[in-house]
Amino acid sequence: MSATSLLSLFLSQLIETAQARSHRQLVVSERSVTDILVALGEAPVRRVASQDAPDVISWRQTKQWLGQECGHLLVDVDGAFNSEAFCAISGCCRAGSLLILQVAADVATLPLSVRRMLRLLQNTDSVAWISHQGWRAPTLPPLSDVSHLVSQQDAINGLIKVVTGHRRRPLLLTADRGRGKSAAMGIAAAQLALQAPRQIVVTSPTPANVTTLFAHAKQQLGTTDVNGLDVGVEGSRIRFVAPDALLRECPDADLLLVDEAAAIPLPMLSQILRQYSRVAIASTEHGYEGTGRAFTLRLRALLEEEQPQWRSLTLTEPMRWAEGDPVETCLNQLFLLNVAHDVIPPKVEPSADSVLQFKTLSAEHLFHHEQELVTLFSLLMTAHYQTSPNDLALLLDDDSLHIVVARQGELTIGVVVVAEEGGFSTPLSEAVIAGTRRIRGHLLAQSLATHLGYATVLENKLWRIQRIAVAPEWRRHGVASGLLTHLQQQAAKENIACIGTSFGATKDLIHFWQKQGFDPVKLGMKRDQASGCYSLQLIRPVETMTWMKEAVTLFQQSLPLLLMSAHQNLEPDIAATLVAFMPACPLTNAETRQVQGYAAGGVGTEAAIGSLQAWTRWTFQSTSPVEWDWREALLTSKVLQGLCWQTVCARFNLSGKKAAEKALRDYVAFRLDN
User: Fold this and answer.
1) Where is ATP annotated to bind (predicted)?
2) Which tens digits make up the pLDDT trace of 23-65?
3) Which pLDDT score is estimated for 417?
4) Are 209 and 260 in contact, with CB atoms under 8 Å apart?
5) How far apart, in Å, do the first and last CA atoms of the chain sit?
6) N or C: which end of the chain has fewer CB within 10 A?
7) ∠ CA 272-290-44 to the nearest 5 degrees?
8) Which residues contribute to the annotated binding site for ATP?
9) Residue 442: how many CB atoms within 10 A of its CB?
10) How many CB atoms lie within 10 A of CB 531?
11) pTM for the whole thing?
């Protein structure tokens, strides 16, 4: 037989085995694309590559395939390889199909992340390997017993029970991607809508997140001629409402479905749980866009505290392939999608003379020390709700990154990842300010430079903290503070002007960063699509410069106006925390008398609003956010953000303006007396 015929026979055997096991098969090929296509013969195959071309799925097009199915895939592995997009498109590959990685000729020139992937693949028995000299057949484990799996029907039954069972018993539905979680929510919503007239509200960070849910709901209802994400049938209605609109408008709902909850801030979810009595929350634990495990742990703690009767269900049965699929197992290993929690060091009491040690790790070091890379990435996953395969690749491939770890003896217990930005020439910096140039990366430096109209920001060198993480057992022991202090010392040695950070704002994060000496300088105008939060930028000078002082002053001047306008829908605890760290002036005698009159009931809220704002800012500055409860949020919503009485009453479950105003007066009186 010819070499082509032998290769064709080998591929046919792989396909036959994959079909018999209802699995996919991963293949690495060093042969040419033509050799593989000829060997596959008439079998339909789709190419995946970096470039846009006819009959080729480009990396940027892969997410458009989510929810669809395809057969064999031939994927280019070159310098432009995209880990996240690869994981996404591999999930569309149905059982019985080959997932062929076509390796570039000169492996030595590939990025470290790609070379690491190929090294691991070469040492994985379940992967077939085709070289120029021959091929290696995979060694596959025995098929597993699948009788214990939790199916999509189990999830549908659990979702229906949220409505038919007791109130205040929310369901947390978790699953790895590809388990039919969103489909189950859509099917359950449709079945409930057909049983009786019901108002079912669906919320998610973006409308795109619920496309699958609504597609299955429409299929169950037997209708396609509907208004996008708003379906009406037999007196029932299933519609999408964005999370911020949900809290602002408070629509009635017999059932609230929250999909892809990992991208919604926990304070917002807490508010949603208080506002609605029948809620199902779904979150992806391991998926192409990252892991939601850290989020799930925090959400479980929140539910335990606020809704102790909550229930949990984890979908385990895959929809497109059988349990034990070797491709899923392999991708989890390659991209650390389900890295075990036990790689994170346990808490041990340090000896009296032991001190934290800090070490900068190079990408080359991590490439050659896999276990250190696994531990480091695990730390990042525990601290950040979404850590994707591309984040793993950047640790190895991005030359602008500085990676510093904190160690207690031999244990790595903390890490900070920093990107160096700025350091540009005056002409280039001025062109960016003028809007005629845009530099790839350098997010914080460019944002602040254009915000302030100050080219010097881009001429200076900045360090932007991308991520900081500490092992759960070691938190609140000064590890993060130690990392930041070490970073400040290193920055001074390397002529860095300031250290900054940008993150989705939450009360706890703001409190942490401001305790570390970082000042807020810019609050985003729109919620970030990934985090569901407003992005907050903060800086801490290494060498104090005029533009840094001006940035802080501008923010402090703008915040009160922003809270009454563009940021009326900012979570009140976040607004209050920002205000608490701003300088405030003592009240004048006139303001004090008016606030006292308000507490006594002699003057209305609107009439005393100026004095109440001054008093609120002064009061928040002298109290700890840790001690706050719903009354501070009520005061913030009405006095600092100027929300209408109707919205305030709905948000805090108050019967009307009279009850809300009484709660405000009682709180002010309490603070005046204490």
Assistant:
1) 152, 320
2) 999 999 999 999 999 999 988 899 999 887 788 999 988 877 7
3) 97
4) yes
5) 93
6) C
7) 120
8) 152, 320
9) 21
10) 20
11) 0.84
Element holding 311 (H helix, E strand): strand 311-315
Tokens, residue 587:
């009240």
Statement: residue 386 has pLDDT above 70? no
Contact yes or no for 546/460 (Cβ under 8 A): no
Q: Residues marked as binding for acetyl-CoA?
A: 468-470
Percent of the chain with pLDDT over 90: 67
Q: What mean pLDDT is predicted for residues 367-383? A: 92
Q: Which residues of 130-151 are buried (b: 16+ CB within 10 A; e: fewer)?
A: beeeebeebeeeeeeeeeeeee
Q: How far apart are CA 585 and CA 582, in angstroms?
A: 10
Q: What is the DSSP letter of 133?
A: S
Per-residue tokens: 182:
């969103």
Binding-site entries: 152, 320, 468-470
Query: Which residues does residue 47 pair with via DSSP β-bridges, in sequence order?
Result: 56, 74
Q: Residues 420-434: what's their mean pLDDT? A: 95
CA torsion sign for 544, 550, 552, 553 is positive
Amino acid, single-letter form, for residue 444: L
pLDDT of residue 352: 46
Report CA dihedral (593, 594, 598, 601) to the nearest 10 degrees. Answer: 70
Residue type, 190: A
Predicted confidence (pLDDT) per residue in 324-356, tens digit: 899 999 999 999 987 755 555 555 565 545 689
Exposed/middle/buried for residue 285 (C-beta within 10 Å: 0-12, 13-18, 19+) = buried
pLDDT recorded at residue 289: 52
pLDDT(288) > 90 = no
